[in-house]
Amino acid sequence: MKFAVFGAGGVGGYLGARLADAGHEVHLIARGDHLAALQSSGLRVESIAGDTAVDPPATDDPAAVGPCDCVLFCVKSYDTREAASALGPLLDDDTAVVSLQNGVDNEAWIAEEVGADHVVGGVAYIFSTIAEPGVVEHTGGPARFVYGELDGERTPRIEALDDALSSCTGVEAVLADDVRVELWRKFCLICAQAGMTATTRLPLGEIRESEASWTMYRRLMEEVSAVARAEGVDLPEAVVDEWCEFVRDLDPEMYSSLHYDLTHGKRLELDALHGSVVRHAERVGVAAPMNEAVHAILRPWAERT
Description:
10-stranded mixed sheet; N-(1-d-carboxylethyl)-l-norvaline Dehydrogenase, domain 2; 2 domains; 305 residues; Rossmann fold; 46% helix
């Protein structure tokens, strides 16, 4: 298959390297110092699942790539609309654009630019970042990628994507029965983890040790799950308990990408996280005071960058 990775950072770079190793045609779309390093020295992945180095073509111009079977769309959520507007040269009639981003609104935003027929939902469970230009570091997480057509249909293109990802070393590939459930399932977790580590400026371990903070962590997830069900998403009732059990075993020094961006003066994905919860909650008439509080606390910081 021919893949374009739009946003070859921690998630996109990792998947692009694994797909290239599996023999697929991969084109990386990046910018800045990272792009320069990709063009001069290729992409190196340092991973707990095994290191690799590949040298696929890299560019900042989608027109230089041309139509693809699949676009892995991995930009930050605040760049979704602008990046989606540049997808045209990558699209053929049946090209799949797979969003592997934080939040539950990206698929709709992409569809506004390229049409809903192109859009595929996806969820990434991986801790990976650009360690330095041209180098992606995978430090944890199962490297589990869940994806599916938004209507649940088993189309030839989604089965081809499943075959491609399943052939990759270091990738746990899962074709979802209902990818909307998977999007909201992860949204529960990231709103709690991002919200609490960013507002307290403290790691997960100290949040777990504070009864009040751990209660708020759980309530953030409960609110998101209530909004999901009001939206008509068949989210299991046990999802909050399952995530709480999972989080109890995580590294106590863990933070979140939202905390990293906040403490390094970078632009925040707040609008796609707690801002999104507040908007959805208002629309369906569900109370979400914990998410409102996180959004209100972090809003001035988001407006700084």
